[in-house]
Amino acid sequence: MLKRLIPFLWLAVLLWPVFSQEQAEQRLFDAGVAAYKSGNYESAQQSFLELLQKYPNGALITGIRLMLAKSYYKLSNYANAEVVCKYFFTRHPESSYIDDMHHLLGNTLYRLRKYNEAVEEWIWVIQNSRDPRLKQTSSEYLYRTMDNYLSEQEVQALQMRHSDPQVNGTIKLVLARKMIEKNRDAEGKALLQALLREQPDHIFADEARRLLGSDPVSSTGTGNVTTTTGSSAGGNSILYLKPAEGETREASDAIQLGMEYALREYQRRSADNPIRLNTREVEATVASALSVVAEETANSRPLCLVGPINPDQNAGIALFSRYEDQPYVVPLSSQHGLTELSPYTFQINPDTRTKGHFLGQYAAGDLKLKNLAVLAPVNEYGQNLVQSFIETAQANGSKVATVQWYYETAQDFTRQFRAIWREGLYLAYRDSVLGADSTVSEGRI
């Protein structure tokens, strides 16, 4: 009996290091995933890099590389994310994560403004993935990117290279839109009719039908959401004021895509109550924004106004909303006093005093910190935030030992951190002296 057990005992001894290594690898991987899910992408990245170094041929290597690429993406390190994705394809072409990596690479290339390369990755997902949600998302990204960033010639080149029905139908829709925008209505509508004849159940068939039934250049959109770009949407609509050009264009595009997605989700739950997104471009002046708002609200009152990003325009529209009893959503500005201008104005990004109050409450009330140091920029934003922070912290029993300021263009913070360090040393010394003899006055210390 004992002789029969000996081979199994040896097998257990030989397999134990492998089992132990897999457990350690799994624990570190789980820690990295937990950090990623909690938004601590820097910690997640470090965990996955450590895993690559310790277990380059481990059982979880494909998952590790996927999560490392996703962590880089979340940290806006798109160059590294691109490298990890492309390396993954050479090492793990048969992995079950291959479609996730192609989708992620498409998103990464989009962020790097390599739009032609990005759409090729999403097309790969549409043609090869078995995940319907991933295919749906890739289709929407493909449509929006071709529509906004590729020329008609570039889209036609894609059509020559790809025969997949879903991809080809999306390309036809984009080409039709571009033709209609250039007043080639007959060509555009012929393409739309061909799309509906060949693929009546295409993912963007409803959009094709809307384009056929609307005025030229009057509507765009995906799924069940209409985004009007002419004047006056009519009915239940949200008016989005979008900057015509400038540094904020990328952010304003992202806001538009987010609202379109939210409206699609809403329409799935409330199909009988359609809401349209009416997008109007405005120049970078207060007069331009107010002119568009006045025109739109005179023709048909929208459910609410959203945007733009310019803080001066936000203040002007907030006053307009007050006198016209018009709900107004400010998407990004954190300037103080906007909501005081109008009871109908809602500020998504809290103003500086609200942020300062929250941080002061968290530091003094939640963390129970007694001595605090502040490092802030010398501008209106920093001054308002610091004032509110100090008031709240002191009201909750904390003391702000030092406030160090810096200019927005500063790159060297040595002086400020040395001052904070010296203050910390003094407080530590003072507390040790008072701990030994509580009768000593602070002046003597």
Task: Explain what the structure shows.
- The structure is a single chain.
- The chain has 445 residues and is α/β, with parallel strands linked by helices.
- Among the domains are: 93 residues, Tetratricopeptide repeat domain (Serine Threonine Protein Phosphatase 5, Tetratricopeptide repeat); 126 residues, 3-Layer(aba) Sandwich (Rossmann fold); 71 residues, Response regulator (Rossmann fold, 3-Layer(aba) Sandwich), CATH 3.40.50.
- Helices cover 63% and strands 9% of the residues.
- The protein contains 18 helices and nine strands.
- The strands form two sheets. It has a seven-stranded mixed beta sheet with strand order 1-2-4-3-5-6-7, with helices on both faces. A two-stranded parallel sheet has the order 8-9.
- Helix 1 packs antiparallel against helix 2.
- It is flat.
Summarize the structure.
The chain is an alpha/beta fold and 445 residues long. Helix content is 63%, strand content 9%.
Rg (C-alpha, Å): 29 Å
SSE order: HHHHHHHHHHHEEEHEHEHEHEHEHEH
- Broad CATH class of the domain at 224-349: Alpha Beta
Number of helices: 18
Q: How are the strands ordered across the major sheet?
A: 1-2-4-3-5-6-7
Low-confidence spans = 5-20, 214-226, 230-234
Percentage of β-strand residues = 5-15%
Question: What fraction, in percent, of the residue positions are helical?
Answer: 55-70%
Question: Which features would summarize this protein structure in a list?
Answer:
445 residues; alpha/beta; Serine Threonine Protein Phosphatase 5, Tetratricopeptide repeat; Rossmann fold; seven-stranded mixed sheet; two-stranded parallel ribbon
